[in-house]
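Each field is set out underneath.
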Amino acid sequence: MIHRVELLDALQQAPSRRLDTTAWRHMFGVRPPDRENTRGARWNPPGVAAIYLSLTRDGVIAEGDHAIAVQPFRPRARRVVYAVRLTLNNVLDLTDPSDLTRTGLTADDLAADDPTACREIGAAVHWLEQDGLLVASARGDDRNLVIYPANRSPDAVFDFGDGEQIAVP
């Protein structure tokens, strides 16, 4: 991993743009799709709230299947996939491999069991007050979106319906 100042410089060189799209969220049980993860995951250290989505339905199902596969016990809770209509003003895009490499990350880091390197990127993106982060999925050719809710502007949109229940594999 590169030093913190170099990381911030690399992130500021990556493209940042407005995102107006439909993304997909996978949830277990009766949890709503706007529930924030504050415990920490791939792109957010503990204490930094994040919401994880994919830009495709297939991508979010693949991510959910992976989450199930790595559990020591199979979840029995229902699975629900939500289409989320969203608008964000400042989304940092690290889907270009050259932008990812500039941060010190590799494709192996994206799929590694240890999320430390990715969490450092997420913490820096949050610190730079970006609404979100676009990254390649380690499960396929899809792109994932991580939203940092504390940074969303007042005009940001996050609308969802009832969702679609899907089978547990």
